[in-house]
Recover the amino acids of this structure.
């Protein structure tokens, strides 16, 4: 996959973590993003992780559908600040309206997504692990205070600290191989 | 609504909010373009005619939308003009 070469850090990703990133790219398209944003990484983890990251989010009531809805809400709230109602436009445009970003070609990673991925690496190193997992992506993404993912979580009413606490708890309970 | 939009988008405000509003508007614009181009294509408009109204080259509009629309309308339920 070409995009793996874009980041030197991708070679440190587990197969599953790469699946999360691939899923993030698809989530970006679904939401009409012209680049992969940090909130797409959060959605990617929800879509593709099979370890404690997905488990932690699930146990806090965060589903992929709910998170997509919250991400769309952040978008429509921003539009509302310009006096535009996204729902109204969508209704008026009718059935031809799609959020999906239609241009072909590879989506670049946004600066916030890159920052989140860098923080994922730091999270892995801090935990003394050499491979980046879905858990590290989730931790790194939520550590990025300037990103949109933290806002998506806020819209869902789930504090970032609660996710981190749950991850710590699951970490203590599960053997390394399950992460 | 015009007055309101002008007030909100053009008046100086928190740069973070202002810039984010621009990004959201750009996204919305892309969605609307996709839907309007699809509408024109379904109505049988040629790429040239669509491009002419959008004020871009035929190549640009084709590159951006052709693959998606051809996949969608492969059944041939377009009306009117040539493609």
């Amino acid at each position: 996959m070409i995009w793996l070469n874009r980041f030197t850090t991708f070679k440190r990703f587990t197969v599953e973590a790469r699946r999360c990133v691939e899923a993030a790219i698809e989530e970006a398209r679904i939401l009409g993003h012209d680049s992969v944003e940090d909130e797409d990484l959060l959605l990617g983890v929800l879509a593709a992780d099979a370890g404690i990251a997905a488990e932690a989010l699930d146990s806090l009531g965060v589903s992929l559908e709910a998170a997509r809805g919250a991400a769309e809400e952040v978008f429509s709230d921003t539009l509302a600040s310009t006096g535009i109602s996204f729902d109204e436009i969508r209704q008026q445009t009718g059935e031809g309206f799609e959020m999906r970003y239609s241009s072909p070609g590879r989506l670049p990673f946004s600066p916030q997504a890159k920052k989140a991925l860098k923080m994922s690496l730091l999270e892995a190193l801090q935990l003394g692990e050499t491979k980046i997992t879905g858990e590290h992506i989730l931790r790194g993404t939520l550590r990025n205070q300037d990103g949109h993912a933290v806002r998506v979580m806020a819209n869902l009413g789930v504090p970032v600290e609660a996710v981190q606490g749950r991850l710590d708890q699951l970490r203590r309970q599960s053997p390394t191989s399950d992460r | 609504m015009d007055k309101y939009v002008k007030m909100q988008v053009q008046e100086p405000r928190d740069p973070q909010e202002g810039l984010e509003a621009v990004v959201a508007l750009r996204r919305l614009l892309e969605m609307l373009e996709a839907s309007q181009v699809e509408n024109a294509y379904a109505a049988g408009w040629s790429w040239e005619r669509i491009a002419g109204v959008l004020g871009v080259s035929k190549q640009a509009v084709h590159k951006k939308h052709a693959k998606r629309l051809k996949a969608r309308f492969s059944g041939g339920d377009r009306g009117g003009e040539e493609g």
About this structure: The two ends of chain A are 24 Å apart (CA to CA). The CA atoms of residues 36 and 109 of chain A lie 5 Å apart. Chain A has nine helices and no strands.
